[in-house]
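Lab meeting prep.
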Amino acid sequence: MAIPAAAVIVPLGVLFFVSGLIVNLIQAIFFVIVRPFSKNGYRRINRMVVELLWIELVWIVDWWAGVKVQVYTDSETLEMMGKEHALVIANHKSDIDWLMGWVFAQRYECLGSALAIMKKSSKLLPVIGWSMWFSECLFLERSWAKDEPTLKLGLQQLKDYPQPFWLALFVEGTRFTQAKLLAAQEYASSNGLPVPRNVLIPRTKGFVTSVSQMRSFVPAIYDMTVAIPRDTTPPTMLRLFKGQPSLLHVKMKRHAMKDLPETDEAVAQWCKDLFLAKDNLLDKHKIEDTFPDSEVHDIGRPFKSLVVVTSWACLLVFGTYKFFHWSNLLSSWKGLTVISICLAVILVLMQILIQFSQSERSTPANVTPRTNNGGESSSNVHNKQE
């Protein structure tokens, strides 16, 4: 990490991790005191508390980096967003797709109940992973034998969620890279499937299970297609922290859950067809640099995140001043050493957060045909499992 980047990231990291630990502590207290007696009471409180942390990252997108998001959608979708439970599926195009989901959720007053199905290691991330665990995000091990009962139980527990929630599921199972696309294309060619050009092959098991478990209480699926315009540098966490702007085009489409097929096989095919249509849509976007036949909507840049971050910053500055005045840490080499170590730890934690978000470091999709010990192509094994 370059020194100029570190000079920016350390202050942001101090703000994020100190405020995050305060939020985690409040979450833990209410988890112990309130949740055993009123699960929905805890959920309502946690929704407000965790938003005070997650909105800091929305502030980085909106105000610090100045990322602009152009939304293409119809009036029906726009009208229903934030007023209902929804399963959100998207192509995993950039390193910050999940953060774009938070930006949308914040605009429609459900940031604190923006949940996700994520890999198990995510919950170990200091502050942000812990906050997600307290908020009932679902963590999977990418082993279906273990994940199926975990997923079903977690989804059923959302049945009585008291306020509108969004549950994000990246059906491709991993972030998009050219290497993963080549592997997906090889797999598709060897198995007589449509060869993808802009997306990876969807992994339908999680989606089918989600639909079957949530059909009775989640009325909608929000289909989100993320595209990066020509001559635009893809956004990353590092670019955000360094205050470098970017532009994203996002196509949103609402599908009524009741319109989906009834059988698991048909739901899986519906998902595959959706990604075929998404692939074609992204082809058109490459040509026209926009999503054709869609209305463009401005989602604005609300002041709420700016107010929250400013309040956190003032509280941190005041608390730091009082602490140093009381402790006299700045007056001794020992105190300066302790401060330096704390700042170094913050820098390392921020580096971990940045690296965790990078697509090159994400777990690759297992789509490359190869022969296993029994002599059977892993392509055929994959087909049997799906």
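Slide two material, second protein:
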Amino acid sequence: MSLSSIVTPLDSAILETKDQYKVYFKIVNHAFKNIQEAVSKNNICSDIEVTFIKQYCELLTYSLEAFRIKYLFDDEEKMRIDLTESGFPNYLEFRYLINDLSLKQEHLGKLPEIETVKKEFLETLLKDREPISERKLQQAASIIYYTSVEKNYIFRRFIQGKIVININKTEGEYTVSWSFYDITHNRAFICFLNFDLYKVTLNEYTQTIYEVLETVADRHMSLDMMAYAIDKKLPKLLPKKLRVMDFGPLYSVFAKDELEITHVLLKGIVAKTLDISAHAISLSIDEINSSGNFNEGNIFNRQELQIWESKKPQKYLFTSHRVMQLLYDKIPETLRSLTLAPIEIPELKLT
């Protein structure tokens, strides 16, 4: 099948062919690789944030590569792309991946030894001069999947980053990061909290901080609600700044949403104005800062909490020059609402 004949009907959220898998994974990897470089080059994030973003994105792209191997020659199971404003795999795919790897030894026990498969492949190709059967290819892909994919590197619903000491302490002595794959939006979010500590050492309070973050800040919610929950549950932590980054949606030929950018892009691909690999990815950043404090509770159980001040949300779009031109022609008002003009990333070439 040629690339030009790939079909992704809007009522389908399933990748049906190897060609679709190949194109989809190239698009996602290209988008995440370039968004990491772009946020640094355009001073959208601090150096500490860029370092952690790179680490979280590497986990996500590693997981997507695991999906590619898993479904490469599987004719029964197909990977599902989220139907809402996402463009990424449904969260259940990540859960299935972790479940698979938890039963790695059991699955490998049902498969032949890798040397046996290699020998059969050589005999079929060199001696019998016949193509490898789909069943054998699927068997080989399963062996690669279960022997090469590491469970510890899979992007989970919640990932805790380490606490680091800030060089510039004007916004807090420490920064902690964490990431989660929101099961409602099916997108990855990365969070950063700047804070000071009160009458406790970092070593004494680290585990408590990690436990609270996983309990109250593991899903998408308003920043006010997230900040209040963290502040309330951690009385010895004095939060100074909270930033939440929303990576997505990813707009491509595989997107199924009703967003303006998706529609312009799909129409451009149908009209052959754009290549099938054309895509764009959004990044939204919400931030709130502590502007003071107040006391909550009675005289016997009083706690000092922060007063939060919201900053204007930041919205960015990363795409190639050709897509950018088409968007300016079709939906200029949408682009003018961005924090910065669309940020150019290299065009993806499939061949």
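Talking points for slide two:
The first strand starts at residue 158 and ends at 165.
Residues 1-12 have pLDDT under 50 and may be disordered.
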